[in-house]
Design a protein that fits this description.
Length: 210
């Protein structure tokens, strides 16, 4: 009896060890999978933001050149913005404000009533910091009720004074479509974090259901 009992204990012990080792291997595979997904998301997002920022820089350079040369030609600026917007399928708008935050140029700018961005945090940051670089704002609901993430660049006069911003709106739906192909499980979560300027951390959480 003692021998049978000892044999059973050994079998149970070996089975428990096998289960434990299998658990560790499963956790290790899960960590690798998570790291790979995170790397994929980072590269996809960085590539899209790099393309968008190049468009912003091109628009900034064009408008600042016009400011430096004399009065801004609205028709030329709008044609330039419309053309560059067509190069960036990720965005829903490419527009320009004046120093007071009023949207002046770009496709879809309403005639008459001006859109005022002067109280938006990304506009305030650009106005306050001459060397801000690209600033990603908090997701906001547009007039169309569609949520979007604004990305902006500062415009400056030849003497360095603030002249407004050039900005794009990236629809939140773009990120949802981009990441919906990832199998994250029923409680999956993708979090995009950006530390763009002066300890400002903005987080957009996109729940996905698969």
């Amino acid at each position: 009896m003692a021998g049978i009992l000892l044999l059973n204990l050994v079998v149970i012990g070996l089975a428990g060890l096998a289960i434990y080792e299998d658990k560790l291997e499963h956790e290790a595979r899960s960590r690798v999978t998570t790291q790979n997904i995170s790397l994929l998301i980072e590269r996809e997002t960085s590539a899209a933001l790099d393309r968008i920022d190049l468009g912003l820089q091109s628009a900034r350079d064009e408008i600042e050149e016009q400011i430096d040369a004399g009065p801004v030609n609205a028709e030329r600026v709008n044609a330039f913005l419309k053309r560059h917007q067509s190069y960036l399928p990720e965005i829903m708008s490419l527009q320009v404000t004046d120093a007071n935050g009023l949207v002046r140029y770009g496709k879809g700018v309403p005639a008459g009533a001006m859109v005022d961005l002067s109280d938006h945090e990304y506009f305030i940051l650009q106005r306050s910091h001459p060397k801000a670089g690209p600033v990603i704002g908090k997701p906001r609901a547009r007039i169309s009720q569609e949520w979007a993430v604004p990305v902006s660049r500062r415009l400056s006069l030849p003497n360095g004074e603030f002249a407004g911003i050039v900005y794009v709106d990236i629809p939140v739906a773009y990120f949802v479509r981009k990441f919906s192909v990832l199998n994250l499980g029923s409680h999956g979560l993708v979090a995009l974090r950006s530390e763009i300027l002066i300890s400002e951390e903005l987080c957009l959480a996109l729940h996905t259901s698969v």
